[in-house]
Give the backbone structure.
Amino acid sequence: MAKLTFYGHACFAVELTDGTRLLFDPFISPNPKASAIDVDAIEADYVLITHGHEDHVADAEAILKRTGATLISNFEIVTWFGGKGLEKAHPLNHGGGFDFPFGRVKYVNAVHSSVLPDGSYGGNPGGFVIETEDTSFYVSGDTALHTDQRLLGELHDLDFGVLCIGDNFTMGPADAAIAAEWAGVKTVVGVHYDTFPPIEIDAADATAAFQATGVELLLPDIGETITVAG
């Protein structure tokens, strides 16, 4: 069980029962739909970035410098932020994991693209599997449906997933529902939708697509905190 706060687009925070705060893909200040969110009030112990696109890293530098959080991402993204003076970081690469004080983080495959805002190479995009004493969950990052997601259900006992559902640039609801089924999760928090016209969704249709596979889709409002359990 964990508390999840949605900050719009693909940005969200998870607060673990030990108080550790994990912030994912911070893109808030450039997002008009998240204008009510005070970025400077967001606290984080770790900032996890799935890939280098602007809509996943825009507020990362400012939040990392203000909070002193540890960055977790792939080698290329960690190196890029290191060039900005942010050396409190841990690099991962695909299939690799590391045991942090709060639990284990594994960097897993995503099928997408990645380039950093200044055009620098962002490495290969990925997602995360987070396993703690109290909860375990899969963060897809931006991705297409891919059969490696079957392995997640075979190798991990996941309580919930945070999956992209906006279509056009990533999985849409129908494919994301299949990904959830393969990963073995019964609860999904949908992200990466409605921010821009190409990724606007019909929430009722999306919910129905997940229900057809026996999965509950949660679509919290921007700024809303929910409790998520498997």
Notes: The chain has a mean pLDDT of 97. The longest strand covers residues 103-109.
